[in-house]
Specification:
Elements (H helix, E strand, L loop, with lengths): L2 H13 L11 H11 L4 H14 L3 H5 L3 H8 L6 H16 L8 H4 L7 H12 L8 H11 L8 H14 L5 H14 L18 H4 L16 E12 L4 E7 L7 E3 L2 E3 H13 L3 E5 L4 E5 L2 E12 L5 H5 L8 E4 H7 L3 H18 L7
Helix pairs in contact: 1-11, 2-3, 2-8, 8-11, 9-10, 9-11
Amino acid sequence: MDQFAKKLIDWYDHHHRLLPWRHTRNIYHTWVCEVMSQQTTLAVVVPKFSEFVKHLPTVYDLATCDEEKLRELWSGLGYYARARNLRKGAQFIIEQLNNRFPQSYREWLQIPGCGPYTAAVIASICFNEKVACVDGNVVRVVSRLLGLCKDVWSSSGKSTIEDYVASMIPEERPGDFNQAMMELGATVCRKTKPNCPACPLQENCLAFANNWIDICPPKKPRREPVNVELFAILVWRKSTDKLAIVDRKNGFLSKTVGFPLLQKLEETQAKEVLKSLPNLDFFELPTKFSHAITHHRISGKVILAQEIENLNFDSWQKLGFTEPFHWFPKSDIASKLSTAFDNKAFKLFLDYQKDYEEGAGNRE
């Protein structure tokens, strides 16, 4: 093992964070935690991971888990499509691979929903395969080590970084080397306020030597956010204190479970239709909320549609809702919702109810 790798792994041995999936080498745990950690902070992931593997301790349990249970266990992690893809991968392993985990990077790429990065993490950590794992933390570390101030985020730039990492991976402990690179970026070589004095690779770092830390790597190009005004329709059956939710197949936030949604352009027409429906009282709650999803910046509002008498689904189809409504007691709704947007809308409804019951309700 060369001095670069030795210094890094020695540092990792003494300073890595104690995370639940690092206690033992477990293929299933490594896979689950890696998918959970994509675009989600570890502070959120750690308790959710422990709960997830407690209820679904094996790949078979995941493959046979029903939608409601999966949604409940994934609640709070966001990007629910990751959970569905994880289950699809588990089903592939059970049905196509006879309950046998893939044993290499190439084999893991055949698993539905498993991309190059996830395959590399599993192959290096669980099978000691010399394959580079490059996430945002590693991009930052290597950019600073090599003094890369431009052309980092392009395909050629990423290839340069991946080739560098691949060339440095030792024969011994390749998984620990990859984890050490990611850990260094997350805890020491941070985006802001990096702790350079604590870095085991400081003497190898061109950015440190040339005082380029602030410009390596360059800022990642970002897409301009798209502004969206989105209305959540909370259909409330007051007589039973139940609310309606749908499995959204199409449109905004498709393939998630939550309240029926309308975008701004549909609002005027929707309100006209709502007015035409008998036995219905509706109004827009005065408070709105903000939400962000990838490159969308959302202004969220709630239309509370209160049934005075039960309406059949044909009436709601006039609004363009094609998915059937599922009614649940208000106390169960939070566990059914799969997006933070819906949870924010539901909280507005609960706040409105509380104010109304205290005599402060105001229909504006």
